[in-house]
Specification:
This protein has 697 residues and is an alpha/beta fold. The protein contains 25 helices and 16 strands. Strand 10 and strand 11 form a beta hairpin.
């Protein structure tokens, strides 16, 4: 033996001697010579059986500790990181259990490595042998413990200690919370409040044991249902040709209001639609005061068709939102026009009955807010979803929930609640949680999948029915709802066909647009754009959605340095001049540096041009105020019933001359640029429809 081996051999051999008597051969040599061969054989089997029992105990202990570790990690780890962490913990726990169980082999291996290191020359051998000797002593201390129970106990204690240590390292109580994973959800304006409330619950429920959020959910809602579908089809842009615009980055999930919406988008861009999961339903109802419901024989579901019900409610107004803006309005339109799709006269009569008191850009929530405090005697009938009616009644009783989160509608009023009338057919919103697949992906598959899985439970708390049409068992303030109401989740109309059935909002029979193109219109309106761009955008909206039913035209002013105006597109049949109007309404082509001209001349000349035409005549003037000198009531004396609407930027409605004429009811002025064009025009349509053609004021 080499000189350097002496000091290291003793402890190592002593450790080996403690482990050696456990072998079967040494046990056999210790048997008394007077015993029989059979007795010796029986005793020689004892250590083997003991080793088997020791192995089973060690395995059970290791499994128990491992399960405890896995449970601890499952309760404290983000879902996205859980598989990797479980794999690592399992690997280390099993490796540790095996190492402790076979300590005698570990000691022998370390001793061998120590002897081999000691044979190296000089200081190198000593330096290499020192860590091997230290580890050898540690494992020897474990090996000399008598009996398998002690070994298993030590193993279990060490493994159990790894749990708090591991949690302390990976989730230190005073360390900063990890950055939550972003997930974006798109929904219609009518559904977004409920989805926002569900998202808040999801963020709370998925936080880790310290309260750190593991996901951050952003819910976006374009102004109209049609805009939401258009954005999905155009890469989340307002139009195929335009630049990216709000409401923000690509959504990871789309909460669709009906299977019809999903089918419409999928039919045009199949690759965009991923997993499509039904999450809830809510039938459409006609909400009326309790006295009206009793007069019609109660609220038995399906007693009347849509058309019968609307007819029986006369002369009370019936409010149905426009199907292009509202999915509630879209599904109601399909229900109302079932069987009369090819009868334009009956459709027109029904359309006039249900759309006169609703603005073009109003959703069901807008109508609810506007009529929240109306007394039952004058309350119109409203087409709502059952869940919206539940929220509306809560608000009318002064206990609005966080689901309907509009601050301007949270009034503490005590007004009698409305009752639902369920038309035949079971037309219902069938909500779908749709995975939206964008090129490149967003990396939020796991949170999105988990959100869709939890969403039915969240929505059930807010009054939504489940996917089979059943109401939740426990639902406060829902006595007026009917559990036996029919729900048809499989109903799939074509969205485009349904929207076309309702027709377009009517601004007038003859509509003349007059746009100020002076140099001052080049001024900016915040981040929206120039005054001229806002004016032409609004004019394009009129041309696309509500031109004159008979004729439409476009004037610009001034037309030269000395003033005047030019008929850019003379009044002509709307269908024939639509293309010309859209081409001429490009703001870059209309921009000038010309000075303002008297607004009085433009208005009086336009009124003269419209005079004598049969039907409702509407003059729409776009300006930032311009030159109002001399403009007064006398200029409107011969307007012959023509409606004059001024859409003014730069606080043009506050000018003395304009304000005085509005008080005199010669014109109506609306600020332009503070809100989307659709909402401004919706107010115009609603105001004009509230008066008979030609009625002053």
């Amino acid at each position: 033996m080499a000189q350097g081996e002496g000091p290291s051999a003793g402890p190592e051999n002593r450790g080996a001697n403690h482990a050696a008597p456990t072998t079967a051969e040494q046990a056999a040599t210790e048997q008394p010579q007077g015993r029989s061969r059979g007795q010796a054989q029986g005793q020689s089997q004892g250590p083997a059986q003991s080793q088997g029992q020791s192995g089973a105990q060690a395995a059970r202990a290791s499994v128990g500790v491992l399960v405890a570790e896995l449970v601890g990690l499952a309760a404290s780890s983000p879902l996205a990181d859980l598989p990797q962490r479980l794999s690592l913990v399992t690997l280390f726990a099993l490796a540790g259990g095996v190492a402790f169980y076979y300590t005698d082999r570990a000691v022998a291996g370390l001793a061998s490595l120590g002897r081999a290191a000691g044979r190296l020359p000089g200081l190198l051998g000593r330096a290499a042998a020192v860590p091997m000797h230290a580890l050898g002593r540690v494992f020897t201390a474990v090996a000399v413990l008598s009996g398998s129970t002690a070994r298993v106990t030590v193993s279990a204690v060490l493994l159990a200690a790894a749990v708090p240590v591991g949690l302390f390292v990976t989730h230190s109580p005073w360390s900063a919370c990890p950055v939550p994973r972003e997930m974006r959800v798109a929904a219609s304006a009518e559904t977004a409040p409920a989805i926002q409330a569900a998202a808040a619950e999801f963020v709370r429920d998925t936080a880790d044991w310290r309260g750190c959020r593991t996901a951050q959910v952003t819910v976006s809602a374009p102004g109209s249902a049609d805009d939401l579908r258009t954005r999905l089809l155009n890469g989340w842009q307002a139009s195929a040709a335009g630049p990216p615009t709000p409401p923000g980055p690509h959504p990871d999930l789309w909460i669709a209001d009906s299977a019809a919406e999903v089918a419409e988008v999928r039919s045009q861009v199949r690759s965009l639609i991923g997993t499509d999961t039904p999450v809830a339903t809510s039938p459409l109802v006609v909400a009326v005061p309790a006295a009206v419901a009793e007069l019609l024989g109660g609220t038995k579901p399906g007693r009347f068709t849509w058309r019968e019900l609307i007819s029986k409610l006369e002369p009370r107004a019936v409010l149905r939102t426009h199907p292009e803006t509202s999915n509630v309005g879209m599904l109601a339109t399909a229900g109302m026009y079932t069987g009369i799709e090819r009868d334009p006269k009956e459709r027109a009569a029904l359309e006039a009955r249900v759309s006169a008191g609703v603005g073009w850009a109003e959703t069901a929530l807008d109508v609810m807010c506007r009529d929240l405090d109306v007394a039952p005697a004058t309350m119109p009938a409203m087409v709502l979803s059952e869940q919206q009616l539940l929220e509306f009644n809560k608000a009318r009783s002064g206990s609005a929930s966080e689901v309907w989160d509009r601050p301007d509608c949270q009034r503490a009023a005590e007004i009698s609640q409305l009752r639902p009338l369920y038309p035949a057919g079971g037309h219902a919103l069938t909500y779908r949680c749709v995975r939206v697949i964008w090129p490149g992906g967003s990396g939020t598959d796991d949170p999105a999948r988990d959100f869709c899985r939890r969403l039915p439970g969240y929505l059930a708390r807010y009054g939504f029915r489940d996917t089979e049409g059943a109401l939740p068992d426990r639902l406060g303030d829902a006595d007026e709802l009917r559990r036996n109401a029919q729900v048809s989740p499989g109903w799939r109309p074509k969205v485009a066909d349904t929207v076309d059935l309702a027709g377009r909002p009517i601004l007038g029979d003859h509509v003349l647009l007059a746009i100020d193109v002076s140099g001052s219109m080049d001024g900016a309106i915040g981040q929206v754009g120039s005054r001229l761009a806002v004016a032409t955008d609004t004019a394009q909206t009129i041309v696309s959605h509500m031109p004159g039913t008979q004729s439409t035209g476009l004037w610009v002013f001034p037309s030269s340095a000395v003033g005047g105006h030019a008929p850019q597109v003379p009044l002509g049949p709307s269908g024939e001049v639509e293309a010309d109007l859209k081409r001429e309404l490009a703001p870059t082509g209309l921009r000038t540096n010309l000075p303002d001209v008297p607004l009085r001349t433009v208005i009086t000349d336009a009124l003269a041009d419209l005079r004598g035409l049969f039907g409702r005549r509407v003059l729409v003037v776009f300006t930032d105020g311009g030159d109002t000198r001399g403009l007064g009531p006398g200029d409107f004396a011969t307007r012959d019933g023509t409606e004059v609407v001024v859409l003014a930027t730069n606080n043009g409605c506050d000018l003395d001359a304009v304000s005085a004429l509005e008080k005199h009811k010669d014109l109506r002025c609306y600020p332009l640029g503070d809100e989307p064009p659709e909402e401004t025009l919706s107010k115009v349509v609603l105001d004009l429809s509230s008066r008979a053609p030609g009625e002053a004021g």
